[in-house]
Amino acid sequence: MSEIREVFEKRMAGIFDLSSYVDAQGDIRYFDSNTQSAWDGWRWAMVVFQPIEAERYGELNERRTH
After folding, report:
1. Record's superkingdom (predicted)?
2. Per-residue H/E/C for the chain
């Protein structure tokens, strides 16, 4: 699990259902659509507002390929 996902899950614990699975592309997805939306938004915000941090965690390149 990436550091950025760990931070996200610590902050969202008790707010969202963090049950997850691995999809056909090998990405971790959340069963709850609200949780998945929050995660997608979190990653988008990192890429837009903190691109250096996002690149350090490997999120920037991942977002470019999806």
Report:
1. Bacteria
2. CCHHHHHHHHHHECCECCCEEECCCCCEEECCHHHHHHHHHHHHHHHHHCHHHHHHCCHHHHHHHC
Consecutive 10-residue averages of pLDDT for the chain (66 residues): 82 90 91 92 83 66 50
Joined together, the tokens standing for residue 63 give 């977002």
The token pair at 11 is 């902050």
> Among residues 20, 61, 59, which one has the least CA distance to residue 42?
59
Q: In 3D, which of 21, 59, 65, 13 has the Cα closest to residue 40?
A: 59
Q: What pLDDT is attached to residue 5?
A: 85
With 0-12 CB in 10 A as exposed, 13-18 as middle and 19+ as buried, what is 54? buried
